[in-house]
Amino acid sequence: MASLPAVPELAISLRGVVKHFGEIVAVDGLDLDVPEGTCVGLLGPNGAGKSTTMKMLTAQVLPSAGEIEVLGYKLPDDSKIARAEMGVVPQLDNLDTTLTVEQNLRVFTHLYRIDRPDRAAAIDRALKIANLTDRRKAKVDELSGGMRRRLLIARGLVHQPRLLLLDEPTVGLDPQVRQELWALIDALRSEGTSILMSTHYIEEAQRLADSVTIMSHGKAVAMGPPAKLVMDHAGHEVLEVYGPPARLVEVEAQAVGAGVRTRRTGTSVALMGIEGHNGDLPDGVRRAANLEDVFVLLTGEEVA
Amino acid sequence: MPARGRKRVGRLDRPAIAGVLVREMTNFSSYWRSTTFSSTVEPTIYLLAFGFGFGSLVSQVGGYDYVDFVGTGTVATAVLFASVFPSMFGTFVKYSFQHTYDAILAAPVDTEEIVTAEALWISIRAGTYGCVPMLVAIVFGLEPRIGMLAVPLIAFIAGFGWASFGIMIAGLLKSIDNFNYVTSTVITPTFLTAGTFFPLSGLPEWAQVLGNFNPLYHTVELVRHAAFGWDPGADLLHLGALVLFALVLWRLAIVALERKLIT
Lengths: 304, 263
Hints:
heterodimer, A: alpha/beta, Rossmann fold, 6-stranded mixed β-sheet, 10 helices, 28% strand
């Protein structure tokens, strides 16, 4: 092709990205794509390298090797231009707590270089998206955990970014609040904002992400649409067998002997992809395979 | 419309510096009372305690009334206190506890602009608070002179250097407890050997030579000359030393904070 497309097809592209912190390898040859207009979930246990990856996208962490492109800009050299066009919702709450909701947003209309005549409208719009319009004069100190998280999202959206980075957006929130935020994120995606969301909540990734990349020890161990990952790695159906520990060990040994993949769930052994299995199976509870099965299978870790 | 498509982003970008300044000023609206109180009352207490306490024993120093001598000298103390402590503690708290810089660095702002804006803001404050002891001294009889109009500028330059020093320290040290070492080994000696309360000419020669390396000494000299009459040759050297101090510490602060923020 002679000419470059005006709009890059990939909002984010990582190729062979490595990050060392001294002896520790936090990210180890990661490839990751976020196609424009999609939501990609970055799923992995604690310490898998998700947060390091997120910080590399804003050039707060510089890669030891590999190539990173965000919105068509090469990082770290053009990171500042890229940052002007993307929004970031951090895992840690870093709002100015003695300021009001509106003041927090106003500061970021300046940091994101919104022209003076457009600032008030940008604040109103962000407040509306985050459903905080009636709390605009409230100090951050007075807000609930869920409202603070919504304000963080509003702050990341105040300049109408083309790309949103969400780092563990619902960590530590109760289920109702989590669902509220899911609705908010889903609405953004349906409006065409590209989203990269790191999470260790399986359900979050399964519900929101068009595609999921599972990370373990700094590497991508699987990627694809959630349903396809489940099909490829855990099949359709799973049999959960309960029993005392000795029985579970026995069931595991039998299953492995019969070529069935298993994983421990703490209180049971899950036998995966049993739909086509003709041999004898122990008694247990049948259920549909899910992303958690894939996650544990590939990362070797129990879900938080 | 938002900044989309606007490609002019370089180093020391004006909108980035303005953005960080707006954040500081907005926050200042919620804590200005306490800061203004401590930054002005403390040097005033020094002025009154030394000026009248010590002044009852010594009426004249270096040809000046002792109250006038101390009143001009404590301008430098006020600048030091109003710049080095807010920058040391403020930077560390924003970095370590509030994670403010993570939020700012996610926007199109670089560490260089953060340091520059923070140092500017603190030095504007120090330039203002620094004048308080002189104004108090005027109330107690110091004669106002036109040269005193230069004092806010002198205080601003000195404040920029000390604010940068504080940011550098916050960038270098791992724990806020270690700030005590800096206070004891750098700040206290600096403030006691700047010629604020007694002239350096009474000290042994080696101490007088060392005094030339104390930025606060140059501040004290410039302020006194602004208040009592300029000495052009010497004052250019004092000003040069102060500007050099501010510039060098500014760059060092950027390096130190960048090492902490960008890994």
